[in-house]
Amino acid sequence: MQQNRTTTANTITRLPMPIQIGVLVLLVISLGITVPFDPSWWQVVVLGVVQGLTEFLPISSTAHLLIAADLIGFQNSIGGTFEIAIQFGTVIAVIAFYAQDLFGQANALLGRTTAEATAAARRLWIAVAVAFVPAAVIGLTFRSLIKQYLFDSPQMIAGALIVGGIVFLVIELLPHRPARTAELGQISWRQALGIGVAQVFALVPGTSRSGSSIVGGMLAGLDRRTATAFSFYLSIPTLGAATMVDLLGSLDKIQSGDWGRLLLGAVVAMIVGWLSIGWLLRYVSRNNFVSFGIYRIIAGVVVLALVMSGNL
Question: Could you tell me the pTM of the whole model?
Answer without folding.
Answer: 0.86
